[in-house]
Amino acid sequence: MLTVHVLRIELGKSYRVVVDLLSEMPGVLEEIGLTRLPHYTVLRMWFERIPTKTWRAFLGASAEKRTGHAAIDSTGFDRDQPIRHYANRTNYRVRALKVTALVDVETLYITDIHSTTSKKHDAKIGPQVARRNAGDLRSLAADRGYDAKAFRDELRENGIRPLIKHRIMNPLDHAHNARMDGDRYHQRSMSETVFSSIKRTLGSAVRARSWWLEFREMLLKATVYNLRRSVRFP
């Protein structure tokens, strides 16, 4: 089911159309071990039933190459306009999904994803993502939106070098920024490169109609991006 859903995201098709297409692909069915195609409603049910931690593990497994030098950044993905009845029934008001990605700056693999429909500040999201991946990180680059002393202190406690520019509040902040490893810090732009690639090839919107399924859809988009990269750069 994980593989079929990856194909769904890769092809950019609906559940029904993916099942129809797979019915004409016996070689693909044999490769993934499906002896009988499920009904498209079963495919949708499994997308909801498989727990988020499994989708996270799937993303982690797809990020084959990691150096420990990462960057964190966020962007917005449009939420497809639902039908009016659904929007009124579910109080569907937020039009964008804020997505934060942890990207290895040398291999460009996505190692973690955070999604929210709230206006949660980057300085609150950053520690949550870094904490989950502390064992794999050696340095973390981020822009001034992640500037928080508590965040830097937590990174250092976990043996991670923070590469986060200080907001200029006094002359000492200039000195802190000047001492930063410029080459490593400027690699944080690799996050923007990755986001641009995902939006260009997999779309800049999410289609699921609830935020927790939208989050899973973003995990799948990131997984498909990693798998494509592993094929291009084995």
UniProtKB/TrEMBL annotation:
Biological process terms in GO annotation: DNA transposition
Record-annotated Transposase IS4-like domain positions: 68-227
InterPro entries per UniProt: Transposase_11, Transposase_Tn903
Origin superkingdom: Archaea
GO molecular function list: DNA binding; transposase activity
Matches recorded under NCBIfam families: transpos_IS5_2 (NF033579)
Name used for this protein in its record: Transposase and inactivated derivatives, IS5 family
